[in-house]
Amino acid sequence: MKAVLLHAYGDAEALRVEEVLKPQPGADEVLIRIEAASVNYADIVRRRGDPYPLRTPLPAILGSEAAGVVDAVGEGVTTLHPGDRVFAFFGGDGLGGYAEYALAGVDNVIKLDPRLDFDVASTLVVAGVTAFQMLKDAGRLKPGESVFIPGGAGGVGNYAIQLAKILGAGCVIAGASTPERRQQALARGADHAIDSTTDDWPREVKRLTGGRGADVVLDMVGGAFFDQALAALAPFGRLVVYGTASRKPSSFIAQRLMPMNQAVIGYYVSHWFKARPDQAQKAFDTVAGFVIEQRLHVEVAGRLPLEGATEAHRIMEARQATGKYVLKPSLTAP
């Protein structure tokens, strides 16, 4: 079968499409014929060898989530059968999706509603469930509260803007780096879109919230952005940290939270599926339900063959993505 291999950490050109042996399912495993594999920023972090909660042993096939059809099942699997349409989250090590076939543990495979297409379904966890749980479970967003969402034109940001509105947020402020990306965030339902690359963006958040700051602030950047995010936080606000796109560590003095009774919460989707699978499954079902009901729009910005993994990584790394990119093994490279 064809797969995208990473033999050494590096830039996007380090990704190579190669022929490898088709895997066979072991006990409690499912072999899936991949129809669509979501490309996520976490894949870029792993490709570069940046600090990450899970190791990326080489050689590696990247890809933490995909949708497709069950090809074969291993011993002990009774709930899934060949031909089933499924979503797979490669939660154990977050690897394997950039391929024609991939193995997943049966506990990380979810049957798909027939109304969900594969391309959209492949994006539902790392972007969709992440956005939903950061707002509802980690950030404890209440109706009428305000929220600041960085990367408003990206995959997680796109989901988060819409989900914040669905959850009843009173004021949704998106951050984006260019006028075009800010316009897209507004088109997705943000009440305001600001340039979050400037040093004074927290002042703008406070102005837009009557001087209070945002009740929930998301941080995917780290480094100096963390201090800015804390400065934009309202009294009793919750700052949810879910990434380090800046590749720089954050400095954190816990006592800074005390005067305003604020909280900093870390979020990592893989551990939710491992430690609280019922709650994570409920989040998946909720997000999928919003898509089926057409309350939530998933923008697939590009559908590429496996050979397009390098292109997708380049676009996302340059922060030019305006939606989700998916790899489709059935497509032929030009």
Brief synopsis:
The chain has 334 residues and is of the alpha/beta class.
Helix residue percentage: 25-40%
Percent of residues in β-strands: 25-35%
Q: Specify the number of helices.
A: 10
Mass-distribution shape: globular
Mean pLDDT: 93
Look at the helices and sheets and give the structural class. Answer: alpha/beta
* Rg from Cα: 20 Å
Uncertain regions: pLDDT < 50 for 5+ in a row?
Answer: none
Largest sheet: 7 strands, mixed
Order of helices and strands: EEEHEEEEEHHEHEHEHEHEEHHEHE
How are the secondary structure elements laid out?
Layout: E1 2-6, E2 15-19, E3 29-39, H1 41-48, E4 60-61, E5 65-73, E6 85-89, E7 101-105, E8 109-111, H2 118-121, H3 124-138, E9 146-149, H4 155-166, E10 171-176, H5 179-187, E11 192-195, H6 201-208, E12 214-219, H7 224-231, E13 233-241, E14 263-266, H8 269-275, H9 277-292, E15 300-304, H10 309-317, E16 324-327
Parallel strand pairs: 9-10, 9-12, 10-11, 12-13, 13-14, 15-16
Antiparallel strand pairs: 1-2, 1-4, 3-5, 3-7, 3-16, 5-6, 6-8
